[in-house]
Amino acid sequence: MKKNITLGAVIILVGVIWLLSNLDVFSFSIIGTFFLSLRKLWPLLLIGAGVSLLINKNSMMKTIVWIIIVICIMFYGIYGMNNGTLNYPEFKLQEHLY
C-alpha cells in the first residue's frame, strides 16, 4: 500500500508541475531541461528500480539512491547538455524597472 501512495504522489506532483507550466506560472525551461536529459538518461531509472528491489528493508537507502539519480539527471540537464557551460539568460534589473 505504501508503494501506491508514493507512486500516486509522484504522478500528482508531475501533473501539478505540468499544469502550472501550461498556465505560465513559471518557466518550463528548467523542467524541460530535466525531461530532455531524462530522455537520454532513462536507463538510470532502471538502475534505480533494480537497486530498490535489491534493498528490501532499508527505505532510507532507497531514498538516497533515488535522490542521487535525480541529482545526476538534473546535473546532466544543467551542465552536460550545455557542453560543459552554465548558460542561463541574464536578468537585468534595469530593464524590468523602467
TrEMBL record:
Keywords: Membrane, Transmembrane, Transmembrane helix. InterPro entries: LiaI-LiaF-like_TM1 (IPR043726). Residues 5-54 form the LiaI-LiaF-like transmembrane region domain. The chain crosses the membrane at residues 7-35, 41-56, 63-81. Pfam families: LiaI-LiaF-like_TM1 (PF18917). It comes from the Bacteria. This is LiaI-LiaF-like transmembrane region domain-containing protein. It comes from Dehalobacter restrictus (strain DSM 9455 / PER-K23). The lineage of its organism: Bacteria, Bacillati, Bacillota, Clostridia, Eubacteriales.
